[in-house]
């Protein structure tokens, strides 16, 4: 199954569009050279449609935008001295807060696990329903839909926008374009502003930004994200999905004939003829397809492709062509579903006169689902069982040991304790593995080692072996740390060095 762009002649595509919509709707077709990596940028003005998939896209757009813009303002009580923002990437203190979960730089394995999970979920979604992520949840799709909605609200639907594009510059055109781009820039600016709120206390940073007292990096980040959002969602649109995003090319290697994609059911739609021609052909017993060649699916497509030419790399599987076609079929009194989510296996089965074939559960999807469940479950277990205290021990390199005047042997260690809990903690340190060993802490007591909240603390620890103990040249020691308030423990191992007998 090829996802390459189909070869079409400029003359054929131009003539078909000109015949249906007039010269104003004519646009440059895809180059006739097969394998072209880039097509000259042509402005696509998609037609507004109504239907099931459009309603799904509106609902997801509303949910994702509300979550993105509102999440920094949600509060979460973590106790005195702790940040009260529910989702916060605190770069100053080196922590990421997600409601009751806190991650430190040492927890980078969880970040790696989340990235692996995200990739596997994307693979699973592709194996089930193609580029469903691209069509409904990708940020580029969400913000492009929002920008298109603003454009339609100000300049009108497709026909009005085409007329406005072709019209000479006038005060009305300047006013409409100025209003549109101003709102686009406002949305882009608030998008960048919302992003920086995830890195500091949102209400405080909003006041600082408004009074020009925020850190310079915040303004730089907002300007950068404002520019990129405005360009990508307002101007580049489908070019991002086709040429900048690597996923269309990657997903071609991950899909198969049982994955659901937006397909045109050519066995039902061909040959394409007008309504009157179809009635005349059927009256004399000749075949006529349900497709009336109205190009509703083409004008509704945000990528500007003709789904009837087959599965294409540009298609983001958004389903708007399905809504457009179903609307036309409903007006003509014909059954819906001429274009819809289907599989290549189903298409071939129907062409051979057999029944439908559906294999959502197959080795590929089972493997992806198993990996997602396994990795996700393991991460949850590790997250629930992780320790909030840390212990590391480093033996002195020179000297390895010191023989004192009374015959006892001393080893020195640098012990680093970490406290990931709010509030100061007091730990007790003990040593196991050497009979009669005595522990001293320089400047402190082994039974009471204070460590501030969300910090690490180093202690100089001395371990003594009595003169009559006569330890081996290398003895394995276990340092045992206990939190006096919670009973939580941590262990670390090192060696005790002594002279050879």
UniProtKB/TrEMBL annotation:
The keyword Metal-binding applies. Residues 281-310 form the 4Fe-4S ferredoxin-type domain. Pfam families: Fer4_18, Fer4_5, FixG_C. Keywords: 4Fe-4S, Electron transport, Iron, Iron-sulfur, Membrane, Metal-binding, Transmembrane, Transmembrane helix, Transport. The chain crosses the membrane at residues 58-76, 108-129, 183-200, 212-233, 366-384. PROSITE patterns: 4FE4S_FER_1, 4FE4S_FER_2. Coiled coil: none annotated. The keyword Transmembrane helix applies. NCBIfam families: ccoG_rdxA_fixG. This is Cytochrome c oxidase accessory protein CcoG. The gene is ccoG.
């Amino acid at each position: 199954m090829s996802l390459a762009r189909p070869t079409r002649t400029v003359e054929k595509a131009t003539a078909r569009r000109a015949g249906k919509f007039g010269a104003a709707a004519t646009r440059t077709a895809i180059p006739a050279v097969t394998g072209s990596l880039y097509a000259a940028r042509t402005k696509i003005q998609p037609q507004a449609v109504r239907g099931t998939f459009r309603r799904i896209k509106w609902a997801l757009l509303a949910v994702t935008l509300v979550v993105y813009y509102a999440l920094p303002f949600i509060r979460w009580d973590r106790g005195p001295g702790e940040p009260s923002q529910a989702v916060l990437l605190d770069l100053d203190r080196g922590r990421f807060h997600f409601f009751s979960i806190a991650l430190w730089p040492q927890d980078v394995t969880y970040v790696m696990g989340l990235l692996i999970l995200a990739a596997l979920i994307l693979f699973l979604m592709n194996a089930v329903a193609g580029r469903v992520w691209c069509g409904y949840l990708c940020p580029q799709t969400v913000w492009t839909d929002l920008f298109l909605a603003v454009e339609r609200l100000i300049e009108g639907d497709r026909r009005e926008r085409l007329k406005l594009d072709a019209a000479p510059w006038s005060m009305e055109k300047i006013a409409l374009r100025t209003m549109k781009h101003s709102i686009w820039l406002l949305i882009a600016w608030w998008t960048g502003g919302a992003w920086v709120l995830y890195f500091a206390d949102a209400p405080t940073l909003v006041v600082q930004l408004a009074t020009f007292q925020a850190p310079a990096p915040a303004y730089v980040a907002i300007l950068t994200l404002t520019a990129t959002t405005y360009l990508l969602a307002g101007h580049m649109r489908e070019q991002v999905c086709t040429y900048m995003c690597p996923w269309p090319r990657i997903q071609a290697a991950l899909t198969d004939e049982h994955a659901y994609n937006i397909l045109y059911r050519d066995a039902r739609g061909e040959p394409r003829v007008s309504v009157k021609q179809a009635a005349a052909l059927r009256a004399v017993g000749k075949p006529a397809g349900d497709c009336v060649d109205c190009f509703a699916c083409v004008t509704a497509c945000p990528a500007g492709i003709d789904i009837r030419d087959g599965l294409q790399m540009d298609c983001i599987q958004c389903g708007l062509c399905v809504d457009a076609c179903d609307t036309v079929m409903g007006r003509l009194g014909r059954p819906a579903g001429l274009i819809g989510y289907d599989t290549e296996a189903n298409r071939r089965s129907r062409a051979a006169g057999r029944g439908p074939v559906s294999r959502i559960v197959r080795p590929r999807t089972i493997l992806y689902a198993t990996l997602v469940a396994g990795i996700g479950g393991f991460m949850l277990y590790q997250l629930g069982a992780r320790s909030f205290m840390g212990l590391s021990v480093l033996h002195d390199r020179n000297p390895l040991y010191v023989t004192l005047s009374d015959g006892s042997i001393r080893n020195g260690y640098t012990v680093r304790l970490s406290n990931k809990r709010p509030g100061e903690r007091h730990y007790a340190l003990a040593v196991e593995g050497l009979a009669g060993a005595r522990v001293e802490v320089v400047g402190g007591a082994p039974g009471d080692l204070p460590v501030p909240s969300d910090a690490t603390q180093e202690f100089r620890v001395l371990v003594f072996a009595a003169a009559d103990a006569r330890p081996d040249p290398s003895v394995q020691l276990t340092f045992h740390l206990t939190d006096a308030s919670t009973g939580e423990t941590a262990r670390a191992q090192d060696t005790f060095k002594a002279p050879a007998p």
